[in-house]
Amino acid sequence: MFEAHVRNNNLKPFREFYHNSCRFWRRCSKPDWREYKKIGVATLIGVLLMGCIGYFVRLITIPVNNILMAP
To answer: What does the DSSP assignment read for the chain?
Structure first.
């Protein structure tokens, strides 16, 4: 009897996780075209912004590095 109680207590977190996962899965819906477009635009802006920042940092560090390393 005691072993069954311990086993049930050990499985309780897994059962709660399964229950919460099923509830989450039922509430999810497939994104429509407008939502895909929003995600794509936001991703594109982020990638372009990170690329510009990286380019300008590299553009600034090359001359500074040449000045510091000059003989």
So the answer is: -HHHHHHHHHHHHHHHHHHHHHHHHHH-----HHHHHHHHHHHHHHHHHHHHHHHHHHHHHHHHHHHHH--
